DNA sequence: GGACCCGCATTGTTCAACAATCGTTGCCAC
DNA sequence: GTGGCAACGATTGTTGAACAATGCGGGTCC
């Protein structure tokens, strides 16, 4: 997915929460830890910075991105635009619908076992599959970037259960609406989903006393 | 706009057509020409690659991107999704509308003087201003990437007059529709614009016998 | 307490070298 | 002539060390 395996590796580590959002990433220290040269690491940083996963301030190094409330609001505005738009133009017969169903079922199974991390990744995979209905690599790429940033917000909040559990049934509702009632109804359902999800994150941010 | 000034510099050079689309960019040669180190240049390459401006194939270096017909189709699909969606939600009272009008007038003035390069940049600036109506940095960023790639398609075709002249009046029509008839009518007008523009590029590609 | 200055740590950039990989060229057998 | 095969050359990938440039914090002086 990423050019250098190093960038992909770092990306995975960040998304996995190995580095806290906002944490400063020292070139020398990280290069030593990953056993790569500083120059190679800097190349990877440039790639990640364009993804919005790390923030790069000239002469002050890079930190793991830490979305502010303004960022969250913007991410959801963009998500609404992309996901709802895609869904409105989507066909219920698109092969990607099977992938959506698969992720919903994976999430439902994970809920049974209280595995909230898996619930979260399945939820996000559901929306990735949703965007894949557009058959547009560029829309998928844009959405992928939004998801990565959003994941950092989830990490900052850490309460996976309250962030992800309520949305399994909502994802199921979107899927059912698409199959049974058509794209327009599904888009409306999705819009409700996104509004609710955004509200919940902002609420958690407020409780954390966060910018 | 870009982190390192070098990446921005390269970006400007590529967009200005200093390097032909598809041209291979040798690290050693370009580093010498720009009077920077190979390492620094490689960092800039990584940033540009994520923008879609250059293509990076491991062990085979980077080339200036050269959109295929499939790319053009995808770019327009994404543009339609983003631009039309933004316009539908836009208010005619948004300050960005003034910027749109300014660009339309700049394009109209350039048409008078036969300055097709300026017509082209004004047309693209019009659409950037249009997306700015969303007040969403992330949507603007995504759109900016699409524009940069599209510009490479324009460069490959080179016939600026036939690519840009017909669309000045269409941009004007979109603006007028937004102000006089509201967002929905403007979005419909914009959709016609995009369809026509896409058709014209694909036609030119076909005449060039291009992939 | 506030402004100024200096030193320290980190980033930015360069250079030279070597390993890894790709494409090509020339050779040989068939 | 054609098809594979091996060595070569060129380019990219990565490293390590060095030095310049910048930002930050501590200390001093008023």
UniProtKB/TrEMBL annotation, chains A, B:
Coiled coil: none annotated. Keywords: DNA-binding, Transcription, Transcription regulation. It comes from the Bacteria. The keyword Transcription applies. SUPFAM superfamilies: GntR ligand-binding domain-like (SSF48008), Winged helix' DNA-binding domain (SSF46785). Residues 1-67 form the HTH gntR-type domain. PROSITE patterns: HTH_GNTR. Pfam families: FCD, GntR. Gene3D superfamilies: GntR ligand-binding domain-like (1.20.120.530), Winged helix-like DNA-binding domain superfamily/Winged helix DNA-binding domain (1.10.10.10). CDD domains: WHTH_GntR. The keyword DNA-binding applies. This is GntR family transcriptional regulator.
């Amino acid at each position: 997915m990423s050019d250098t395996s190093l960038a992909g590796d770092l990306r995975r580590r960040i998304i996995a929460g190995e580095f806290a959002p906002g944490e400063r990433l020292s070139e020398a220290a990280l290069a030593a830890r990953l056993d790569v040269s500083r120059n190679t690491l800097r190349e990877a940083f440039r790639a990640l910075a364009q993804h919005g996963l790390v923030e790069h301030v000239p002469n002050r190094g890079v930190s793991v991105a830490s979305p502010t409330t303004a960022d969250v609001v913007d991410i959801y505005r963009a998500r609404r635009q992309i996901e709802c738009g895609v869904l409105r133009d989507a066909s219920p017969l698109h092969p990607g619908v099977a992938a959506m169903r698969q992720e919903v079922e994976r999430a439902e199974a994970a809920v049974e076992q209280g595995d909230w991390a898996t619930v979260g990744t399945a939820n996000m995979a559901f929306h990735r599959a949703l965007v894949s209905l557009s058959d547009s690599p560029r829309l998928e790429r844009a959405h992928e970037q939004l998801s990565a940033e959003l994941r950092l917000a989830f990490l900052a909040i850490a309460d996976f259960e309250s962030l992800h559990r309520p949305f399994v049934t909502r994802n199921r509702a979107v899927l059912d609406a698409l199959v049974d009632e058509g794209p327009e109804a599904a888009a409306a359902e999705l819009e409700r989903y996104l509004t609710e999800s955004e509200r919940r994150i902002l609420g958690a941010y407020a409780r954390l006393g966060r910018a």
